[in-house]
Amino acid sequence: MKSELEDMKQEMYQKLSANSALTQAHETRLEEAEKQIDEVETVNMAMSDALIKSMKQQRAMQGKLVDLEGRSRRNNMRIYGVPEEKEGNSVPDFVDQLLRTELALPDTNLQIQRAHRAVARKLERNAPPRSIVVNFLEFNIKEKVLKKAWEKKILMEGRRLSFDHDYATEVVLKRKAYVGIKRVLKEKNIRFQTPLDRMRIHWDSGTRTYDSAQDAAQELRRRGFSVEIPDRNASELYPEIENLHQTKTWQRVGESSAGGDGTASRARKRLQEYERIPPETN
User: Where is this region: Disordered (predicted)?
Assistant: First the structure.
């Protein structure tokens, strides 16, 4: 009987020893996996940081380029609504005559250096005509002409002409996003201004300036106005940078989080539960 018990004891010890060796092998493999995962996480986080930094630098450079382009257009003015081919053979002469006649500037030296249609193919017959870009030698004269043009209603073939600054492409896209908001404000007789790519609204409670059409639209909704929130300009990098920040929620293997141990630590503990201390021999 004693011999059988000893054999059974020895057999159980051998099985436990085998299980312990297997557990040790699993733990070794798990540690190797942890090391590889840690290396991948380190590289991934470093690449994410570098990408975010690069995107921020690109956004800053893009802002500087837009600013430089805007400054290069400071002496330009755009005229909208002039029918195609109305200018004849000389756009500068046509614009000079138009401004002198309609704005009562007969004795003013306008100093128009260049004037031409916007660089684009001619549109279909029923499409709006291309704008005319006018370049003045002096900024002050351009501002004087533009101010007078805004004060007077100028018609051509029954349609009103519009005068505005010559903005950079990115600024034009941002300004277009305010169209729906402007319509609502005009219907409610609320005074507003759009300096460059921002909007200044004169509320009864005071004047507020909004940096984007999204911010302005959200403010209108909070005040009870029905307005659609426009999509953010695709050229902006804000959403992409924010998305990268949100995805940086990885945690290095072995580090504990607010919710408890990491997956690898929990797996190690479960494996250790099966480990048995071998019995002492007499």
Answer: 248-282
